[in-house]
Design brief:
By secondary structure, the chain is mainly alpha-helical. Helix content is 84%, strand content 0%. It contains eight helices and no strands. Helix 4 crosses helix 5 and helix 7 crosses helix 8.
């Protein structure tokens, strides 16, 4: 059972880091989008003090919401979603079908049970040993959905490129909007 718990612990750690990176990249893209949008809106507002203050307040609110979303989606939700070994075993089973049933059964049957009619301890131990051996061939890092990080990176790069392009194309518009 220790090797199954160790495997699931490694997977959980990778999942938490993966989700944190993903949320951070989407957050960066969102902040970069604001960095483009705010000066453009500032240019439209012009010298109207009330509108400028409203824009500053709305921008501050957007920054707070984006920051909260990064923490929520990158830290809080993943930690709640993959709290137990059963949760992680289900996730592994979705990503690696051949081990799905045995892994989840090993985790659930390996937990102490005081109910009547519990399965034979020898059978449970045999299942756990067999599943542990099958897990030796599964690399936790290969289970991660690589496309999620690529997608988030792409959004971040597009946001940076958009910022650079707008600064190069219309620098006065951007700098004027920030004042």
């Amino acid at each position: 059972d220790t090797s199954i718990s160790g495997f699931l612990g490694r997977v959980r750690a990778l999942l938490l880091r993966h989700q944190a990176r993903r949320a951070a990249m989407y957050g960066f893209a969102s902040f970069a989008g604001l960095a483009v949008l705010v000066p453009l809106l500032g240019t439209l507002v012009g010298d109207n003090r009330t509108s400028a203050q409203a824009l500053i307040g709305t921008t501050a609110l957007a920054v707070i919401v984006i920051g909260a979303a990064i923490v929520l989606m990158g830290v809080v939700v993943p930690r709640r979603r993959w709290t137990s070994d059963s949760d992680v075993a289900r996730w592994v089973g979705e990503r690696h079908k051949p081990i799905a049933s045995d892994l989840l059964s090993s985790v659930e049957l390996g937990a102490p049970a005081s109910t009547r009619g519990a399965p034979s301890p020898a059978l449970v131990d045999a299942l756990i040993v067999a599943t542990s051996e099958r897990l030796e061939d599964v690399e936790p890092a290969r289970l991660l959905p690589v496309e999620e990080i690529k997608h988030a990176k792409r959004w971040a790069m597009v946001a940076v490129a958009l910022n650079v392009a707008i600064i190069l194309i219309a620098p006065r518009l951007v700098w004027g909007g920030w004042r």
